């Protein structure tokens, strides 16, 4: 395995001993396959964070656990890589666990591993379940602070939430859709990925409340994709067939290209399509005018606030009120950054 990092840096990144890294690097036996993969992942992470290697200052080794599609995970990782150098003289090095779906048992195992190897803090985007809250509590007992990222865990012992006001985001989406559709009696498809994500639930609540208050002529129909679902298209196709007035989409859960493809195959037009997050796919769809609006928030600011919360926990920054929600940006094809 080619590399240009000190064994101690790889070992710290991987959460294993130097001897284990040495065996992996020199391709000797006696190392489990999953440990070899973890060492390789550590080298890959160091490659992406090489501008942090060798800097002097207080060092924070943090862990990032995100349950989301790869396109979002990549965007969050890029955001942290970009904002980390701006936190100097503190030095942030991150270890990642990113999966499309993380079962409760897997999250319990992740928490146990973090308590065993140690961490200065954990940034998490996971489902809000009793097991999640129990894992956060166990990490807190081990003096490992947890920051909720993008979707909150309000009943947990997390030290802060870094993200947008999701209920206001949903209300904003309803306002835009209602103004766009005027007095049209249309059906609006609302898609979520997983009902256990508090952020998605808050967006849907905000959307429904605004529609009920100001646009009662709109009929809302919902699809929940399910984390790890291979495709949303069959559900959309069935709904298109049963809902002749379906002409608008508020996509909370993603899978936007597949939703568009399903409408195209049915020969049905979409009056307004509102989505979330300016990731690579949505940027392309917006530039091609296949999406009308993307509600976006700056992931770099979220990551910066999350890191600052961890620094405050360790008294590396003065105490301050919790971060305020990240402002919502309304992005159209005309103001695409």
Topology:
Layout (H helix, E strand, L loop, with lengths): L6 H8 L3 H8 L7 H16 L10 E9 L2 H14 L7 E9 L4 H14 L3 E5 L4 H12 L4 E4 L10 E3 L3 H16 L5 E6 L5 H17 L4 E6 L8 H10 L3 E6 L4 H10 L6 E5 L3 H8 L5 E4 L2 H15 L15 E3 L6
Parallel strand pairs: 1-2, 1-3, 3-4, 4-5, 6-7, 6-8, 8-9, 9-10
Antiparallel strand pairs: 10-11
Helix pairs in contact: 1-2, 1-3, 4-12, 5-6, 7-8, 9-10
What's a concise summary of this model?
The chain is an alpha/beta fold and 337 residues long.
Q: Average pLDDT across residues?
A: 90
Q: Helical proportion?
A: 40-55%
CATH superfamily of the largest domain: Response regulator
Low-confidence stretches: none
**Helix and strand string, N-terminal first?**
HHHEHEHEHEEHEHEHEHEHEHE
| CA-CA gap between termini | 39 Å
Q: Quick one: CATH class of the largest domain? A: Alpha Beta
Please report which band the strand proportion falls in: under 5%, 5-15%, 15-25%, 25-35%, 35-45% or over 45%.
15-25%
Q: For the report, how would you describe the main beta sheet?
A: 6 strands, mixed
